[in-house]
Amino acid sequence: MSEEERYLRIGELARRTGTSPELLRAWEQRYGLLRPSRSDGGFRLYSDQDEARVSRTKALIAQGLSASEAARRALVPGGGSDEEEADVAPTEHLAFELREALDRFDAERADRVLDRMLAALSLETAMQDVLLPYLHLLGDRWATGEVSVGQEHFASSLIRGRLLGLARGWGVGDGPSLLLACPPDEEHDLGLIMFGIAAWRRGWRITYLGQDTPIATIEQAVEVVKPALVVLAIAEGTLIGSHTHELRMLAARVPVAVGGGIRPEELAGLGIRLLEGDPVDAARTLTA
Ligand code: B12
Questions:
Q1: Are 176 and 273 in the same domain?
Q2: Is residue 189 located within the same domain as residue 249?
Q3: Spacing, Cα 245 to ligand 1 middle (Å)
């Protein structure tokens, strides 16, 4: 048997694996998935191992992995087995896929991943096990320069938009009322939105004022809404320092709680309660 008969040309490999020569060339260039040798005439020739890796990649994509992750696993000798697949939680797949899509500014794909996430998981599990880990990793990657400010803004804006979409209707109902806001200079409101969604689903009615809200405005809203509790989100304790007096005055008029990166001692003497844990756990605890 000659070399050319033992090995496959790209068209034959594409036919046998149900792919196309263009896709195989892309996988070869992008992921190094194929390792062809050359015929005497200079043609690329593919082996049984190449065929096995392409088939494995296709199977992993069909299970929901991105092409790059599928190729990465198919390249591990003996790796990517079914047992290994079973060990990988769907939440990790989803967070990984979300990252891939958002890193590339691919809103359409990110929305599809989020749709799949919402179909597969309860909203609370989705927030706790996919979105929170994703956001934490995003922050770490931003801090080391692995993702740009643009990528980080794009990702957090897209997620914020989806969360607010899921929150539609949270202000309607007869349940006790929560007034939610970030104090002045605070823009981190994703945790507050997640908290609002989790609380709403436990029967609370939500009035949401959003990011960077003057305390005087919160007081005006309190007069109208008459909430059972005002919940503020503060990512860093230092913010409290610049508004101590106003916050103490607010807490004298209405019960106030704070969630976020605050330590209990930072709230000493303000009459403000600390909501501990992540936003979903805090909503559970508050309701209990
Ligand atoms: C998205 C994001 C942004 C977005 C926010 C968009 C938005 N609408 O929220 C934008 C781009 C605006 C932003 C800006 C900045 N950011 Co930023 N950001 C993030 C990022 C990546 C995710 C934040 C998030 O939503 N996380 C999800 C929440 C739920 O998780 P969490 O923040 O860890 O909160 C925990 C608890 O605090 C609690 N929690 C949080 N909120 C709430 C609310 C309630 C009610 C409750 C009960 C609990 C709770 O739950 C979490 C526990 O699992 C984080 C990384 C990270 N680790 O989170 C950085 C991060 C918070 N940002 C950081 C920084 C430094 C900044 C900037 C100062 C950057 C800059 N130089 O401009 C500015 C500050 C802007 C401002 N004035 O507020 C730092 C904060 C460091 C610190 N010491 O506090 C982080 C940690 C990144 C990092 N690794 O350095 N940021």
A1: yes
A2: yes
A3: 24
- Where does ligand 1 bind, in terms of residues with CB under 6 Å? 132, 135-136, 138-140, 142-143, 152-153, 156, 160, 185-192, 195, 231, 233, 235-236, 259-261, 275, 278-279, 282
Q: Which domain holds residue 105?
A: 90-165
Residues 32, 141: one domain?
no
Q: What spacing in Å lies between the alpha carbon of 260 and ligand 1's midpoint?
A: 9
> Do residue 179 and residue 132 come from a single domain?
no
102 Cα: distance to centroid of ligand 1 (angstroms): 17
What is the best residue among 144, 188, 193, 208 to mutate for testing ligand 1's pocket, by most ligand atoms within 8 Å of CB? 188
**Residue 187, number of CB atoms within 10 A of its CB:** 11
The number of distinct structural domains making up the chain is 3
Q: Average pLDDT across each block of 10 residues of the chain; the chain has 288 residues. List them in order.
A: 65 91 88 84 86 89 81 72 52 89 95 92 93 94 92 98 97 95 95 97 96 96 97 85 90 96 89 95 93
Long-range contacts of 150-156 (CB under 8 A, 24+ apart): 151/102, 151/103, 151/105, 154/102, 154/105, 155/102, 155/103, 155/110, 156/190
Q: Are 207 and 248 in contact (CB under 8 A)?
A: no
Q: Would you state the structure tokens that stand for residue 29, as one six-digit string?
A: 């260039």
Confidence (pTM): 0.78
